[in-house]
């Protein structure tokens, strides 16, 4: 499995396009992790699905700390995961 990790800061539309492009790749075993840095952007939750996980940060952590939060989530579940961080 490959994990795609991205951070949302008022860019739900772009993340929607990212999810759409990844989901059209045949045979890919993946999970998309979105760390939501924009606490009042509820539109990101429209993408919640079995292949997409949204982690609400409760405040704007900044890109690096948000990435670390997502990386920690993956590492706790799969210490040998392949993770692609998308900015």
Topology of this structure?
Elements: E1 2-8, H1 12-23, E2 30-36, E3 52-56, H2 63-77, E4 82-86
Please give a handful of descriptors for the protein shown.
single chain, 87 residues, alpha/beta
What does this structure look like?
There is one protein chain. By secondary structure, this protein is α/β, with parallel strands linked by helices. Strands 3-2-1-4 form a four-stranded parallel beta sheet, with helices on both faces. The longest helix has 15 residues. The radius of gyration is 12 Å and the shape is globular. The model has no long low-confidence stretch (mean pLDDT 94).
- What is the number of beta strands? 4
Q: What shape does the CA trace take?
A: globular
Cα distance spanning the termini:
20 Å
Strand coverage percent: 25-35%
Q: How is the biggest beta sheet arranged?
A: 4 strands, parallel
Q: Which regions contain 5 or more consecutive residues with pLDDT less than 50?
A: none
Count of helical regions? 2
Which percent bin holds the helix content? 25-40%
Gyration radius, to the nearest Å? Answer: 12 Å
The helix/strand series, from N terminus to C terminus, equals EHEEHE
Please identify the structural class as seen in this structure: alpha/beta
Q: Major sheet: order of its strands?
A: 3-2-1-4
Mean pLDDT, rounded to whole units? 94
């Amino acid at each position: 499995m490959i994990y795609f990790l991205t951070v949302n800061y008022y860019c739900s539309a772009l993340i929607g396009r990212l999810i759409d492009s990844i989901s059209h790749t045949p045979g890919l075993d993946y999970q998309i992790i979105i760390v939501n840095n924009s606490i009042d952007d509820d539109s990101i939750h429209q993408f919640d699905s079995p292949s997409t996980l949204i982690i609400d940060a409760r405040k704007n952590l900044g890109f690096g700390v948000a990435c670390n939060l997502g990386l920690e989530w993956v590492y706790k579940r799969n210490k040998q995961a392949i993770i692609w961080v998308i900015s």
